[in-house]
């Protein structure tokens, strides 16, 4: 059976963020074909504030996207691991690339609405705590970058090779 895209939210009205929850998300991300999984803390897609763990492994790919059709800010805080966070211009050029690592001086991003963004996971068992406004609707939550391939397509490998080369220049 395939690992889920998201785990069920804890049922308690007040959720204590415990190591066991973190470990659960990380373990499922290890088993996931997508190499990532979300553990939400909000109770449903209609909630006005979405909070979640996003556990990821190196090699995961999420198509760069922005939240413009319904403008949404996002906050990403690294709790474990390391990743490169990339902000793109409208044509796929890199505006900002920063290596974020848990426990370092650069450990998170506060992103305004409308900015294309993506990640490259650098360490196993990377875990972020993500916060953004709800509600969630699959129809208009993300505006996918037209210059980046869709997740699961053969073009992803070549795109990631080009992105890696560009990141070497921006992060050196």
Keywords:
33% strand; alpha+beta; five-stranded antiparallel beta sheet; globular; 172 residues; 2 helices; three-stranded antiparallel beta sheet
Strand order of the largest sheet: 1-2-9-4-7
Count of separate structural domains: 1
**Main sheet record:** 5 strands, antiparallel
How much of the residues is beta strand, in percent? 25-35%
Helix fraction by DSSP (H/I, runs of at least 4) = 10-25%
CATH class category name: Mainly Beta
Q: Helical segment tally?
A: 2
End-to-end Cα distance, whole Å, is 42 Å
CATH architecture: Sandwich
The structural class is alpha+beta
Radius of gyration (CA) equals 16 Å
Total strands: the figure is: 10
**Low-confidence parts lasting 5 or more residues at pLDDT below 50?**
none
CATH topology: Jelly Rolls
Name the overall outline.
Answer: globular
Mean pLDDT across residues: 95
Q: Which superfamily, in CATH terms, is the homologous superfamily?
A: Jelly Rolls
What is the succession of H and E elements?
A: HEEEEEEEEEEH
């Amino acid at each position: 059976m395939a690992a889920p895209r998201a785990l069920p939210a804890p049922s308690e009205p007040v959720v204590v963020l415990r190591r066991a929850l973190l470990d659960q998300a990380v373990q499922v991300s290890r088993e996931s074909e997508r190499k990532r999984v979300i553990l939400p803390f909000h109770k449903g897609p209609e909630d006005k504030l979405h909070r979640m763990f996003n556990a990821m492994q190196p090699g995961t790919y999420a198509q760069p996207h922005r939240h413009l059709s319904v403008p949404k800010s996002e906050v990403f805080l690294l709790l474990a691991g390391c990743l490169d966070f990339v902000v793109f211009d409208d044509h796929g050029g890199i505006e900002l690339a920063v290596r974020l690592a848990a426990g370092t001086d650069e450990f998170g991003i506060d992103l305004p609405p409308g900015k294309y963004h993506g990640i490259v996971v650098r360490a196993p068992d990377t875990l972020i705590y993500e916060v953004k406004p709800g509600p969630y609707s699959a129809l208009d939550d993300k505006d996918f970058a037209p210059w980046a391939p869709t997740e699961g397509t053969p073009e992803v490998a070549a795109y990631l090779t080009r992105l890696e080369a560009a990141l070497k220049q921006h992060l050196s």
